[in-house]
Amino acid sequence: MEPVNVAVIYYSATGTVHALARAAAEGAEKAGANVRLRKVRELAPEAAIESNPAWGQHIRDTTDVVEAALDDLAWADAVLFGTPTRFGTPSGQLKAFIDTTGPLWQQGQLVGKVYSALTASTTAHGGQESTILALSNVFYHWGGIIVPPGYTDPIQYQSGNPYGTSHVSGDGPPGEVALEAVRYQARRVVDTATALKIGRAA
Ligand SMILES: Cc1cc2nc3c(=O)[nH]c(=O)nc-3n(C[C@H](O)[C@H](O)[C@H](O)COP(=O)(O)O)c2cc1C
């Protein structure tokens, strides 16, 4: 059987979610999947971007990452979405991409795929779970199969978010615990998508 296809689709202004998304892509690849790492289009005005040197720098550092397209969703058996929290909700940039998926939704092309989400916020109680749950609302509408990490691996007792990998960026960039947690989350996504693929082919 062909390996499952996994798309990691994210938005990151200053690099935190990008680091998590890269680790998710690594984890999915290591678990045997074909992987596409994709950033969604930046929509903020130039003046806003340049008001934060880390934001502009991150854009320049990630010019090699391909922008997400609807085909990435159509191609994927499983999708991991990453976004920083914005007042406890997903970023407008990721939501804008999601809001272009109407045609795929109408054709039933988003149904039955595995979906999972990860996030980052500056503070520990800054809305990580509400951000992931907001993305889950989309997955329900798509008829998706939501695969959270839960407490299904010892790393989850260190990283501590059963909803999806979540990093507190106020503590610095993602360290080995967060990166290992997101690699684990990706592996669980791949394992579930593979089991579904085998089951559906039987
Ligand atoms: C408009 C805006 C709203 C934000 N809202 C929150 C928030 O509600 N809680 C929080 O802890 N951090 C909040 N943040 C901070 C980011 O979520 C945080 O810095 C995140 O780790 C950035 O990820 P990135 O480096 O991938 O862009 C906000 C940032 C911006 C610009």
How is the topology of this model organized?
Layout: E1 5-10, H1 16-30, E2 34-39, H2 46-50, H3 53-61, H4 70-75, E3 78-86, E4 89-90, H5 92-98, H6 102-106, E5 114-121, H7 128-142, E6 145-146, H8 154-159, E7 166-168, H9 176-201
Parallel strand pairs: 1-2, 1-3, 3-5, 5-6, 5-7
Antiparallel strand pairs: 3-4
Bound molecules: flavin mononucleotide.
Flavin mononucleotide (FMN) binds at residues 12-18, 84-88, 120-123, 126-127, 169.
Summarize the structure.
Belongs to the WrbA family. This protein is an alpha/beta fold.
Strand content: 15-25%
Structural class: alpha/beta
CATH class: Alpha Beta
- Give the integer mean of the pLDDT values: 98
**Which percent range fits the helix content?**
40-55%
Count of strand segments: 7
SSE string, helices as H and strands as E: EHEHHHEEHHEHEHEH
Bound molecules: flavin mononucleotide
